[in-house]
Automatic annotation (TrEMBL):
The modification N6-(pyridoxal phosphate)lysine is found at residue 254. This is Acetylornithine aminotransferase. Its EC number is 2.6.1.11. N(2)-acetyl-L-ornithine binds at residues 143, 282. GO terms for biological process: L-arginine biosynthetic process. HAMAP family: ArgD_aminotrans_3 (MF_01107). Binds 1 pyridoxal phosphate per subunit. It comes from Photobacterium profundum (strain SS9). Gene3D superfamilies: Aspartate Aminotransferase, domain 1, Type I PLP-dependent aspartate aminotransferase-like (Major domain). One of its GO terms (cellular component) is cytoplasm. It catalyses: N(2)-acetyl-L-ornithine + 2-oxoglutarate = N-acetyl-L-glutamate 5-semialdehyde + L-glutamate.
Amino acid sequence: MTMEHKVERKLFDEVMVPCYSPMQIIPVKGQGSRIWDQADREYIDFAGGIAVSCLGHCHPVMVNALKSQAEKLWHLSNVMTNEPALRLAKKLTEHSFAEKVFFANSGAEANEAALKLARRYAVDKFGPEKSEIIAFNQGFHGRTFFTVTVGGQAAYSDGFGPKPQAISHIPYNDLSALAEIMSDRTCAIMMEPLQGEGGIISPTSEFVQGVRELCDKHNALLIFDEVQTGNGRTGNFYAYQGLGVTPDILSTAKSLGGGFPIGAMLTTTALAEHMKVGTHGSTYGGNPLACAVAEAVVDEVSKPEVLAGVKEREQWFRDALEQINAKYPIFAEVRGKGLLLGAALNEEWQGRARDVLLAAVEEGLMVLVAGTNVVRFTPSLVIDKADVDEGMARLERAIAKLYNK
């Protein structure tokens, strides 16, 4: 009997394109908000695969949906439709402003579809000169060439040759800068209703209302990138519902599949009409396996007790972080909403978010960063109190070590 060959971290350096620099540990299994590595060491998961694992790991509703669909039908091309895709699309329209859905595999693809729809609509309705897309500094919308150019972080889009044109960037939460730049050439504004990668920055109510009004004034479409904020993450099913502003187009992914890759662009019937047969497509978009899992996730996350529980858990996190900070004052403030939270480092600790992340892993806790100055938390929406308490005890030990060095 041959021993199974152990997969080691050094294999990454041999066979993987070096655009990532993963940790030395390799997780092999997960249950709820805990995961285990190859050495059977246990970690508490406050990262959720970057806001993806909204029901934790191996949640029974997801496992059952996957197993059940796996024995029926895995794939069809979009020459045909399928039941899971239709059921999921119907549910997404019931939980949002949208009347029409386009399925993709990721947030970047959902955003690509959103941007193409906005441009196509403007060309059809107003002519080719109405093409300008306005987005925000530090915004993040994906890694395709179009979405990364719309994203407001030049480091991600520079160095690949000529970029897509007619894209402008201004500071987030700066309404006067937006009013100044907008014109009848503006085709769309793309924004996150809470900036994620940019440091967990919430919009002011005046800003988000003003953006909507300026879009209406200039016949521009408002696109909300809800890839990170969607599917219950902020305590509303979609973040726009807590802001009192409705976009024209919304992108969703990450937690939509709870860990199974799927994305969707949501919009109105009037706008969707501009995506005629042949204008856009996706081989795997609307895949029955992905849609079956996502349907189970949407059914679970949309339960009123789950959404209410997000706000309750936000308070657990805020209280615990405040207690840690009273002993080891490294944070200036805790930002964000629901379970998309960022603890911003104070002046003495600038640039050390990754140090906190690495110290936390040493103690058996997974957290994230959002830039160099913010420690980010995007745990399961149903994480239990015991896991939060234990995770925070580990975080405190990690911070204590850094603080007392």
